[in-house]
Amino acid sequence: MPETRHDSLAPEQILLLDHAERTPVHLHAMGHLVYPATGVLSLVTDDGSWIAPSNRVVWIPAGFRHRHRAHGATDMRVVFLPAELAGLLPARPAVLAMSALAREAALTLTGDPSRSPESRDRLRRVIIEDVCATPEQPLHLPEPHDDRLRALTRLVEQDLSSPETLEQLGRRVGASGRTLSRLFRQEVGMSFRQWRIQLRVHRALLLLTDGVSVVDTATACGWANPSAFIDAFTELVGQTPGRYRRSLALEDRGPLRENRSGATPDTASIFESLKTKW
C-alpha cells in the first residue's frame, strides 16, 4: 500500500474502536504507547500477542509491524515518543502497568491540544517515569514457530477446559513431553504451565469484557474452582476479575471521551495517516 506524509499531523491521537474492530497491519517510524482508556486492546505481531486492559499500556517500538483488535468499545490513546524517551523502554513490544498518575497524564496529553509544547513534553516524561518504575507485565503470549508446538497450542486454544497434560498432548502432535517442554523454554521463554495460565487469563479478559460472569468465565477457561481463577487473574492483571468486571460496567454508563473535534474519528483513515510520519 503506498504511503503518504502528513507533516502537520499531531503526534497524539484518540481512536474510538467498536467491539471486535481491527486496525490494518501497520508500522510507525516512532515508538509509541497505546493506552486503552476503556475496553481491552490486543496487539498482534509475528512474534505473538499482547493484551492490555484499562490499567495497562502497550509499548510498541519503532518499526514493528502490528495490528490492534478491540474487545468491547475501546477508547484508544496513542502517545508517540521522541528517541530519548523511547530509549528508556524495552527494545521489543511490552505491556506496562498504568498508574492513576500516568493515566491522567495520558488522558490530558491526548485530550487537550491547546497545551504548549513544553507542557506536552512534561506530560510525556511523567508517563515514562511512572511506567518505568514498575516491572514489565506478563501479558504476552509468544508465538512459537516449531510445527509441533504450533499444533499443540492450537489444540489448547480450541479447548481451554481440557485438563490434558503435556505428555498427553504430545502423543497427539507426535512429540514427547520432554521434547515439548524443552521447546517451550527455547521458543516461548516459559514453561507449558505458565503459557497455558497466560492463555487462560487472556481469554478470561475477553469473556469478562463480553459480560460473562466470573464463575462462568473460570469454568470456560479451564479452572477447577473460582478461587484458583481469581488468584491467577489477579496476579497477572493487577485486580480481581470481579473488580475488573465492575469497572467495565462503570465505563459503559458514560460516553467515550470525544476526540478533539468532538466527533468519533474514522479509524481506517487515521491509521492510514498515522503509519507514515509517526
Shape: globular
Largest sheet: 7 strands, antiparallel
Structural class: alpha+beta
Query: What top-tier CATH class of the largest domain fits best?
Result: Mainly Beta
Q: How many β-strands, per DSSP?
A: 7
Share of residues in strands: 15-25%
Structure explained in plain terms:
This protein is of the alpha+beta class. It has two domains: 12-139, Jelly Rolls; 143-251, Arc Repressor Mutant, subunit A. 45% of the residues lie in helices and 18% in strands. It is built from eleven helices and seven strands. The protein has helices at residues 83-86, 100-111, 117-131, 147-158, 166-173, 177-188, 192-209, 214-220, 226-237, 241-253, 267-277, and strands at 12-17, 32-45, 48-52, 56-60, 67-80, 94-97, 140-142. Strands 1, 2, 3, 4, 5, 6 and 7 form a seven-stranded antiparallel sheet that branches. A hairpin with a 2-residue loop joins β2 (32-45) and β3 (48-52). α4 packs across α5 (166-173) and α7 (192-209) crosses α9. The radius of gyration is 19 Å and the shape is globular. The model is unreliable at 1-10, 253-271 and 273-278 (pLDDT under 50).
